[in-house]
Design goal:
The protein has one domain. It is 77% helix and 0% strand. Helix 2 packs antiparallel against helix 5, helix 3 packs across helix 4 and helix 4 packs antiparallel against helix 5. The protein is elongated, with a radius of gyration of 21 Å. The two termini are 20 Å apart.
Length: 186
Amino acid sequence: MVAVGSIGTNLLETFNLLIGILPPFSQNFIKLFILVLFVVVYSIFIWKFHKFIATKNILGLNLSKYNKAEHPVLIKIIAAGLYLIEYIIFLPFLIFFWFSIFTLFLIFFTKDLPLQSLLIISAIIVSVIRMTSYYKKGLSKELAKLLPFTLLAVSMLNPAFFNTERILGHLNKLPDFFEEIINMVP
C-alpha cells in the first residue's frame, strides 16, 4: 500500500519536472488536456456504470438452466445452491467493485473531504441505485447518471478542481483508501 503512495509522489514530481521545462502556454494546454481526459474517463465510467448498476438482474446468468436434477428435493437444493452462487457471491463482489471504482473517482473530485465520508457517500449512492432498480428501472438509470454527473458538475464549479497537481496528489490517498475498503469487508 505504501508503494502506491510513493508512486503517487513520484508521479507528481515527474509531472511537475516535465511540465516545468515547457513554456507557459504548453503547461496550461497539458494541464487542461489531463483534466479533459480525466472527465472523459469518468463520463465513460458513469455511462457503463449506470447501465450495469441500474439493472434489476445485473448478472443475467440464469444458472438454473444447469439444474438437470429430476428429483423435486434435489432440484430445490441445487436451485438454492445456484442462487447462492449468483446472488450471494458474484453479485456483491461486482457491486463492491463498482463501489470501489466510484469512490476512487470521488477521491479525485473532492478537495478536503475525509475518506470515511467519501466511502459513505459512495455507498449511499450505489445502495439507492440498487434499491430503486427493484422499483422502476428508469428511475434507477436516471439516478445512476444524475447523481454522479451532479457530483462532477459541483466539482467543476469549484475553482480548486482545475488544479492538476491536486488531482495527481490524491494518489497519495490511495493506500488509505485501500485500507479503508479492506476494513469494510467483514
